[in-house]
Amino acid sequence: MASSLHALFAKIVKIGNLVVTGPGGLQVFGDGTGKRVALNFTDDAAMEDIAADPALKLAEVYMEGRMVVIEGDIYDFLALIKSNTLSEALTFGMVWRGMARIIAARIKMHLPVNHNKHNVSHHYDLSAKLFDLFLDEDWQYSCAYFNPPGISLYEAQLAKKRHIAAKLMPEPGQRVLEIGSGWGGMAMYLAESSGVDVTGITLSEEQLRVSRDRAQKRGLTDTVRFELQDYRYLPATTTYDRIVSVGMFEHVGPTHYREYFTKAAEVLDDNGVMLLHSIGQPSPPLATNPFIEKYIFPGGYIPSLAEVLPAVQKSGLLVRDIEILPMHYAHTLREWRQRFVARKAEAVALYDERFFRMWEFYLAGSEMAFTHENLYIFQLQLAKRGDVVPDNRDYIARNEALLLEFEKTRVPLEKVSF
Q1: CB atoms within 10 A of CB 127
Q2: Which domains, from first to last, does the chain contain?
Q3: Which among 144, 258, 272, 415 could bridge 268 via Cys, Cβ 3.0 to 4.6 Å?
């Protein structure tokens, strides 16, 4: 008997080659072109759940092992679906669930309760051993910069740090603030390459522990410090010559953008420079994907530049440069996913099969957002004055060349200890 999911696939999959096997037998969808993707469902209820609420239930059914990809992988399946037109397949149930999520998201945005610490802990306070399964040697958990193409993940993450440092133009002795300091790699790179004094702030206790340990082992405790600190409560009495924030802005939320940039302007020196590196999307989202919101990044929100720039303007900061990096995160996520899947046994031993499939789905779905939904990385260079940044971009390449020379003499990074 054909299920509601069969009917949904028939509406969606016009191009491609999808084979679905379930309790009711085997059916084929699409025109037979492209890479073959084959799914196996363990029970009718799994198929009905997905048909009723694919935005959430597709991930949950996959996590539970009730949908198995037996040819191709989960990224191939998601890409196949996204390569076809979805609007004609919308049902009344999908529409009202979507509307309910939009309303709930808008209400949640305006609640006065501060969930920042809890939201950050949900993701970043997972076992450090998990991140060691797929990140590069410096534990960079943000978009790498594959320039030139074909370089390794480690080299691309190093190129990212070099590119950001070149735009910041730090000078020896300057004070640098890093908002969202991760596992400390960016702060240590700036301190060692440019002779600056860096304060990194985070809301993750696990990241704080690892960062402090790494800085101590590299003998940087006099010039690099990490604090458990919410950016909103930074004292106005302390100002910084440079501010950098990489991969943190996605956790701020649109109702706090003005507060974020106002605080940045407050603690940035009048001659200072700020570099913001964040995921962006072509237009403002109505709501965050329900799977990502529930399981991966509660409270996360990926903005469009149309939402960000008005808040910058109102803060008094000036935009000195905008750069768009369209596909670099797709390459980064593919590297992460391949590394993670290759070490499946370790991930399962650390947590369980359900957790492994949840993270595999997260990495695959995130990659697809860049390959099929036009998400991108933007880098905003901000300042209070127009003359603190050169009036052409040639200085970036010059600074990168100098940083490359530093990297040749830098002491190799040690493996992170748990």
Answers
A1: 12
A2: 4-90 (3.30.1050), 117-409 (3.40.50.150)
A3: 272
